[in-house]
Amino acid sequence: MTELIKLTAAELAGKIHSREVSAVEVTQAHLDRIAEVDDHIHAFLHVDTEGALAAAKAVDEGIADGKAPASPLAGVPLALKDVLTTEGVPTTCGSKTLEGWIPPYDATVTRKLREAGVVILGKTNMDEFAMGSSTENSAYGPTHNPWDHARIPGGSGGGSSASIAAFEAAIAIGTDTGGSIRQPGSVTGTVGVKPTYGGVSRYGLVAFSSSLDQAGPCARTVLDAALLHEVIAGYDPRDSTSIDAPVPPVVAAARQGANGDLKGVKVGVVKEFGGDGYQPGVLRSFQAAVEQLRALGAEVVEVSCPHFVYALPAYYLIAPSECSSNLARFDAMRYGLRVADDGTHSAEEVMSLTREKGFGAEVKRRIMLGTYALSSGYYDAYYGSAQKVRTLITRDFDAAFEQVDVLVSPTTPTTAFKIGERVDDPMAMYLADLCTIPSNLAGNAAMSVPSGLSDEDGLPVGLQIMAPALADDRLYRVGAAYEAARDAAAGGALIHKVPELGGTK
After folding, report:
1. pLDDT per residue as tens digits for the range 363-394
2. Active-site residue numbers?
3. What's the sign of the alpha-carbon dihedral 9, 14, 20, 21?
4. Structure pTM?
């Protein structure tokens, strides 16, 4: 493995901006890595070689002309989840329904990346329309975890997290509706952040559940995540849910946290997350992480959030209800797949046949669940009741944050499970997001940072840190402090322990 692709995004940017190495060289090194290992990992659905090299060349030319880099990440290669639109580059959302679709516009996140000089390598694999916890629901085949090719990389954004864990990209963008950034981060040993809902524009993000979806950064270090967060965040008038408020000082917080001092920070351990259903090695890793936070000077207390136990059923009424509405736009009439367009079928028949062929089993399951929950006579009993539970969960967070600065828990109850192990058991699959869903329902900020390897199977475990809305900087301070202490104790960065890739899947 070339040493260049092992560098962090911050390190790469420093070398590019000082002209020690060119952005084109850095980009080519990552493209070579993709060519070397992605047959085994399948992190990418589309690699934009020509576009990436052109973007890198533009960065180099600007620096050579004496212009200041467009951002601290100018020239750094990034992998983009295939749920964000990219003008002139395919966007499939992991579905046959959008196979071959070339969007005529960029999502706001995509535009901000381009304006910042970030080099977009291509689009990453995902569960179809972001519905899943393993990236096995992609119409184009599963992504494999770089730590063990027989295991899942998490979902729905497994392609983005796997790409950085496999050193195919320095940083990546994911989206998080119920944990789809944090859960893949946990099982691939990478950092994943769900910003405050509304903190990053959803314009051009193909909607699954509009009140829950949130784009965010994936990285190998907390500082890299903060640098990327700063690039993509901010108010966007084209998104009606965008928050018109300053971006929290996430980069400054990450740099402060790296000094390793958490004196004055109060950390709450969520009482409801742990016990039955949690892998013992995950719980031991979590307890060790909590002790490390205490050693850094944080005050640690137990906090009860009693309604968190109802988050999973509430989510699986709210999210499918919103998806049943959002996915109605894929009607075969305007764009995307069209089946039986031979002049002998009515428009309604074409719609039905197209959806039958274009949508996968999990997407159909959620559309049917949502349609039922919204149907006459059941709306109040199901969707309405779930929204009331959502309010109670938000109140739990409010009460907790009156006592502590951040909350912590395991990110996910288990390490990465084997591909195929849960495909026929939807409930077991859904339980992977048990700890992450409350933050989506409430809209507050949350992060997963690697907390080492399970002593049972040697696979990565994640520590989840949760902060109030618009207090994203707290995540980065605590996460960076823990990361620095963890690496010092381990004698090096966790992600560097990933073995070389090769052989067969």
Report:
1. 999 999 999 999 988 999 999 999 999 999 99
2. 81, 156, 180
3. positive
4. 0.96
